[in-house]
Amino acid sequence: MERHLALALPQKFKRRVDDPSDEAEHQSKRRLVSSAYGRTVFGVFCQPYPTPILHDWMRLSDKIFSPRFSATSKEGKHLQGGLKSDLSLSFLDESFGAACKGFYVVASSRGYLLCLNKSSRSQNTDYVICNPMTKEFEVLPRSQHAHVDVAIALIIDTDTTDSVTSIDELEFKVAKTAPPNPRGMWSNLIMEVYSSSTKGWLQKNVVADVAFRLDVPWRSGFAIGDASFWTVVFNAPPNHPHWVKEITGLVVYNFDEDGGGAKLIKPPTLGGIGVEFSVPVSECFGSCRGNVVYSRCDENVMEVWRLTDFKEVEEEWIMIHTVNLVNISIYPPEFRSYIGLDEVGNVNPELLGFYSIDFNLVLISFSDQAFWYNLDTKEAYTVDKDVGTVRTYFVYEALALEGNQGSQD
């Protein structure tokens, strides 16, 4: 582990990892475990997706696109090695028989996964919610409307989740949304909502005050409390630089509030903190400790922001991190030489997500590897290698209850 981390870090950080005198300090910084927030991140589910290009020339088997779990904590490794848990989700394949083509993970929340039956990939109609710790699952009735591209969010009742002993007792909603037409921008959405209390789907029409386009299908929605969030693209307002034509934002629908209105959340203004941003190379919305968070980067700078309250009329963003990316790369020297980078060259990262209990950690990929990157210590933790297909990553977070972590060392 130590050797791998040393190879994966810039030269100026290697001494800190290799120095045994600092081992206790670095152990405390490196451990990705539960906090006062009361929950544990066990790891990340990586979900590859087939694309038309891949199918045209590779004709890959369904197994290539099966979800994979990567442990990022001691608890996650125990869970991965346990006999009770099944993080490959093979228990779903076995339960559905030989005709089953497998499942995609499409959402994750509080220890539960929402999975799409691969046989309905072109229609997005057949879903299963499961607990890989206990191998329990529930098949949802087929949704009423088929859409090629959808954004989906799994909303778990936070007041009752931690006390349930069976998936039958779980209170949850599934919010599945799609535009009237995948082309162009629209100010209204067709949303289907499944409720565990009614055991059925209900259609809603959601209207926003600005036209937008859903950023699907590779970005999952997320939920905070009883509100669902989807990443969207909308036309840039007049106060933006002329070269910025479109802006990435969020649409939020709060089930706690009456009416069918949706709110558009805009990202922090470019250059608003004295850093003159170019058009971001990559940007990402997500959640951490019950907050909406946003990160963006260009070739020089990475920023991480927190939204004070998504229910407010006007957005108020607070910057919590800014990192200079110049001369920083997590590639080992031999790999940098192989791809033709000089010693001070830099590879732009792609932002993928956030660690749900720690604002310091972002999930990023550099070319063909995905990492947790600590913005405070500048340390990196490998999550996934050989990233050659389109992938989505789902943080798997739950209570570390006695008996649900599998075998213990």
From TrEMBL:
Coiled coil: none annotated. Residues 100-333 form the F-box protein At3g26010-like beta-propeller domain. It comes from the Eukaryota. InterPro entries: At3g26010-like, Beta-prop_At3g26010-like. This is F-box protein At3g26010-like beta-propeller domain-containing protein. It comes from Cinchona calisaya.
